[in-house]
Design a protein that fits this description.
By secondary structure, the chain is α/β, with parallel strands linked by helices. Helices cover 44% and strands 18% of the residues. The strands form three sheets. The protein has a four-stranded mixed sheet. Strands 5-8 form a two-stranded parallel ribbon. Strands 6-7 form a two-stranded parallel sheet. Helix 4 crosses helix 5. It is globular, with a radius of gyration of 17 Å.
Length: 206
């Protein structure tokens, strides 16, 4: 049966919620409102009948990889169109402490004229920080928009730049990119989870 494990963790930049399927982390975002409203909002993506389990230790482990230098492999369970996934992979490839433009993301996704569509895909990224959409900026050098505000985006970029400057080449900045694996699928999360749940119900009947 398809299930979602979710949890909350503090970070230097605010509290986050992390959710995972058996294949990997499927959601990571900063809290915009209270926890119940956040779970309800994400539940629309997971499926309202999908079983969920609270595990704050899982979320804290993910936060420790992103912000604490913990060396542990993580897998991201990405769901989207071919173009979205291509853009998100390009975002993932931006080195820690550096930035790239929306035009760069469009070009890397195979359509350099689709900068606006690339920007939309970046904004729809479900797994912030692990797919570091805050590293994508406008062509004129402006930081551009961010779901949780420009101020947070600037703070994240500043923290990364300072981390790179303070650590040797084999430090967290280099290693973080090497710790993230990506599982990709065009099947929407709610569809796969509901199929798993239905199959589980049938298995129990025979």
């Amino acid at each position: 049966m398809g299930t979602i494990t979710y949890g909350f963790s503090d970070t230097p930049f605010g509290e986050i919620i992390v959710a995972a399927t058996k294949k990997g982390v499927c959601d990571l975002q900063f809290l915009e409102y209270n926890k119940l409203e956040t779970i309800h909002d994400l539940g629309q993506r997971w499926g309202v009948y999908t079983p969920i389990t609270l595990d704050n230790e899982m979320a804290e482990m993910v936060a420790s990889v992103v912000f604490g230098g913990k060396r542990r492999k993580l897998t991201v369970d990405l769901r989207g169109t071919d173009f979205q996934i291509a853009v998100w992979k390009a975002v993932r490839a931006i080195p820690f402490g550096q930035t790239a433009t929306y035009q760069d993301m469009a070009r890397a996704a195979g359509n350099e004229k689709a900068a606006r569509a690339a920007a939309t895909a970046v904004a729809q990224n479900p797994v912030s920080l692990l797919i570091p959409c805050h590293r994508v900026v406008r062509g004129d050098g402006d930081t551009g928009d961010y779901r949780w505000g420009r101020d947070l985006k600037r703070k994240l970029l500043k923290w990364e730049a300072e981390t790179v400057a303070a650590q040797p080449k084999n430090g967290m900045a280099t290693n973080l990119n090497q710790l993230i694996d990506i599982h990709c699928s065009n099947v929407p999360l709610v569809e796969e989870l509901s199929q798993d749940m239905f199959k589980g119900d049938l298995d129990g009947l025979f």
